[in-house]
């Protein structure tokens, strides 16, 4: 049987629509994959940001820890001065005893 121009046009249009549908479907699938990848990357960045935030001290926490360190340092300095003073006193006593004995 001989195809009419209408049949030929119908077949050509059907093929074009089928090709267009395949390209559109492929494009949507590609965009969905890219969107999924972008969301996964964003989730990872947010997770890392949350981990970073948990490791960061607030100003109040920093000041409290800094004050504790300063207090410890003052206590050590006080002990050092006391030890130096005690050493001086002991040295003076030993010097006096030595002079008394000789």
Layout: helices, strands, pairs:
Elements (H helix, E strand, L loop, with lengths): L4 H51 L3 H43 L1
Kindly describe this structure.
With 102 residues, the protein is mainly alpha-helical. The protein has 2 domains: 1-56; 58-102. Helices cover 92% and strands 0% of the residues. The chain contains 2 helices and no strands. The longest helix has 51 residues, at 5-55. It starts with a helix and ends with a helix. The mean pLDDT is 89.
**Count of helix runs:** 2
When the domains are counted, the total is: 2
Q: Percent helix among the residues?
A: over 70%
Distance between the termini: 144 Å
| Largest sheet geometry | none
Give helix and strand order, one letter per element, not per position.
HH
Write down the overall mean pLDDT. 89
Low-confidence stretches: none
- What form results from the Cα inertia axes? rod-shaped
Strands, total number: 0
Pairing-aware structural class of the strands and helices?
mainly alpha
Q: What Rg do the Cα atoms give?
A: 43 Å
The portion of residues forming beta strands comes to: under 5%
């Amino acid at each position: 049987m001989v195809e009419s121009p209408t049949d030929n046009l119908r077949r050509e249009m059907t093929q074009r629509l089928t090709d267009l549908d395949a390209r559109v479907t492929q494009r949507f699938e590609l965009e969905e994959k890219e969107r999924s990848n972008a969301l996964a990357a964003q989730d990872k960045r947010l997770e890392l940001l949350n981990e970073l935030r948990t490791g960061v001290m607030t100003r109040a926490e920093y000041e409290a820890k800094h004050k504790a360190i300063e207090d410890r340092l003052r206590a050590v300095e006080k002990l050092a001065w006391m030890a130096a003073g005690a050493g001086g006193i002991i040295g003076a006593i030993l010097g006096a005893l030595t002079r008394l004995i000789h």
